[in-house]
Every structure is written in structure tokens, then in C-alpha cells.
Amino acid sequence: MWAQQTARCVIQQVDKPEDLIRQAEIELHTQNWIRNIGAQATVREVITIPVVVHVIYFDETENISDLQIFSQLQVLNEDFRFLNEATDRIPQTFQDLAADVELEFCLVNVDPDGQATNGITRTQTTYECIGNTLKEPGLTPDGTPRLYYTDLGGRDIWDSQSYLNLYVANTCDGFIGRAKLPGTVSPNEDAPIIDNDHFGSNCTPTSFPFDLGRTATHEVGHFFNLIHIFGDADECDIDDLVSDTPLQKEPYTQCPSHPQVSCNSLDMFMNFMDYVDDRCMLMFTTGQKNRMLATLAPGGPRAGLATSSLCGVPAVPTEDALRVFPNPVGNCLHLDFETIATGTIDIRLYNAFGQLVYERINSNTFALKSIDTTNLTDGVYWLVVEYGDDRISRKVIKTGAWN
After folding, report:
1. Disulfide-capable partner of 347 in 102, 132, 166, 360 (CB 3.0 to 4.6 Å)?
2. 3 state DSSP class of 279
């Protein structure tokens, strides 16, 4: 599989003396905040992070849809609020360590010039592999990454003290995600990069097994000063600087079974900061949460994001609405349910004979969902959403073509 052969993540390397000094200052701030404030706080106000997504595309196949972008924001919110529906698969050994990070993400509605925006920019480039900022043509001859500069074929970053910039572009097998730790890069390039095939919930042949939006979760973790859980070295004495994650000798890939042991302890390979497949990434820990929140505290390198007010107030639906798309559907069915109701919903898909072919019970969010319909035969299906005493259904036509 292409995705299996491509680097899961590339972290910005630190090689300049001034960057090393800045990182040391950030680490001192982080440890002081955790010791004096973070560990003592039991209740915090949820911080909303303002996001702008820059889509840089060579051809229209790379110009991902708004819906795919919306699905990525949904995944970030579920993962950072401990609301993803697979949390029950966290091994009992680690369940008490799993944390609601208390960060939420929204697309901004004001750009740096004070103009209205939907939080998405789209730029067509003449460079086919502009997302691969490790080599040409993603780099200029002097080593500048084109992606971050309008006059070099990309798109200028919005003020990184006020916006979390996410770049989506074709990395041409270079990596599926790249991030920069605080203090390691110029503000003009301080933004994660996600390959366009792996941004959001994306049921396509080239996105699997990194198809559930967890690449962005992982890279945003780096942006907020998390390093890999295995410490970025195949050694048991190299730590990730987090107190409640066990030492781990090396990264895990695919979906290993629990338990796995290295460094004389059970490994937390299901952590968002390992290299496993998306469906096996399940948790951040309390220690990782505190480390991220330290970057947003006064004096922290991401403090400006904590005080931003660039997000709009979500519209409150006046009546229940269920959107199903595309319809006819190929291999990936999306549904978006808007309601003033609260609580959980049940989602079921039936074939024309009334046989249940898909079920998701007690879904804990109402927003955008994706159903993999690859293995369903062509024909008529009925999607049923139940919540409380109410029910909404939609007729769905399945065809053999990819969406």
C-alpha cells in the first residue's frame, strides 16, 4: 500500500544554536507551568483554537472539498475532547491516564485584513509536489519551502500567533504529515502540513490506512509541543518529556495487539503520538494535555491562540436536518445531521430487504460522519437516524464507482 511505504510524520529538525536556546526556554516554561499550575488545576475553561486551512493544489483532484475539511475539524474536536467513538478500546491499564485535552477547533470567520472568510483558502500552483518541503520542487534552490509563500507558488501564512494554519497539499510520497515544534522555525513557516489524501475522513483507495483524520491530530500534537511517544530514538533512555507515558524503545506501525512490551513496561502504542494506523490511535494522556496547555498559557509559545476571538458563533438549526451525500454513493457515504436535540444518536443502514448492513449505536456527536460502503452491493438502501423518540430516514443508491 502506498501509504504504508510513506513516512507517517516528519518533525522539523533543530540545528541552529538560536533554535536550541529558544527550545530550552520553552521547555523551562513548560516544566514550571506544569509543576506550579497545570498539575493543580482540576477544572479549566475549554480553549477554542482558531483554524485556517490553506489548500494548495496542482490539479482539481487535489482541491479537496469543503466537506472533507469540515470532517477534519470534527475529528480534531472529537480527539482533543476525548469524544471519538473508539475510546472503549483503550486497554484498561491506560484508561485512567486518558484525557480530555479541553481544546476545541473552529474555522475562523475573519481574515488578517478584517474581512469575512469561511476559514479556507484555495491556491492553484504550478508545482506538482509543492507539499514535499524536503526536496525539489517543494524547495527553491536556496532551500526555502515554496508552500508557505505566495510569490513562490504557495500561500502566505496568516499570523501564526493568531491562527493555527493547516496546509493541505500533495507531498508526492514524501510524508503524510509534517510539523514544527514551537521555537524551531520562522513564524512565516510555523504550520503543519498534511498530504491531501490524508486530511479528514477520506474513503479513497490511496488514503487507507491513514484515512480517519488522525494525521492532523498527530501533527497538531507536535504543534503544541508533543514529541513522539517513543522519544524519537530507538533507545530506552530517551524520554518524550511526559511523566505518564511509559518509556518505549521504537515506534509501532499498523495495528498491533495489546500487550506489547519494551523498556520493561507495557507500551502505549494506541497513543496519538505513535505511528500506528488511524483506527488504532485512541488517546492523549493527562501529562500530554498539560504539556500542550502550557504552550497556550501566558508566556507560552502559542499563548496568542488562547485569546483569539476569530471564530464565529455556530448557527443554531431551527429544525432537524439530515444531509446524505453523495447520493448515488460509491465507496464513502457522508451524513451531516443538524438538530437542537442533545444526547446520542443511533445510525443504521438497511438494504432493500430490510437487512441491517451497518450500525453505530450511541454515537456521541451529531456532526459529520462517514460510512465506508466499499463492500456493499449495488442497489437501494435506507439510512435511519434515531435520537430520543424521533427518527429520520433517507433513501440511498449504491453504485460501484469510487466517489
Report:
1. 360
2. helix
- β-partners of residue 386 are 346, 391
**Residue 251, CA distances (Å) to 246, 273, 276, 331 in order:** 13, 9, 8, 31
Print burial letters for 84-119: b (CB count within 10 Å at least 16), e (below 16).
beeeeebeeebeebbbebbbebbbbebbeeeeebeb
- Crossing angle, helix 214-223 and helix 66-80, to 10 degrees? 60
Region 321-398: CATH code: 2.60.40.10
Backbone φ and ψ of 159, nearest 5°: -40, 115
Cell numbers that stand for 132 in this block: 514535499
> pLDDT per residue over 23-46, tens digit each?
899 999 999 999 887 656 655 789
Q: Confidence class of residue 263 from pLDDT cuts 50, 70 and 90?
A: very high
CATH of 2-306, one of 1.25.40.20, 3.90.1570.10, 3.40.50.720, 3.40.390.10: 3.40.390.10
Angle between the 17-36 and 286-296 helix axes, to the nearest 10 degrees? 110
Q: Which of 136, 189, 219, 319 is flagged as catalytic?
A: 219
* Two domains, one topology: 2-306 and 321-398: no
Domains of the chain, residue spans: 2-306, 321-398
How many C-alpha atoms does 400 have within 13 Å on its Cβ side?
A: 1
CA distance 106 to 169: 20
Contact between 108 and 101 (Cβ < 8 Å): no
Q: 177-210: per-residue pLDDT in tens?
A: 999 899 999 999 999 999 999 999 877 778 889 9
3-state DSSP assignment of residue 86: coil
User: Could you confirm whether 60 is annotated as catalytic?
Assistant: no
The pLDDT assigned to 2 comes to 32
- Within 13 A of 160's CA, how many CA atoms are on the CB side? 22
The string of pLDDT tens digits covering residues 56-101 is: 999 999 999 888 898 899 899 999 999 887 888 999 999 999 999 9
Q: Return the DSSP state at 15.
A: -
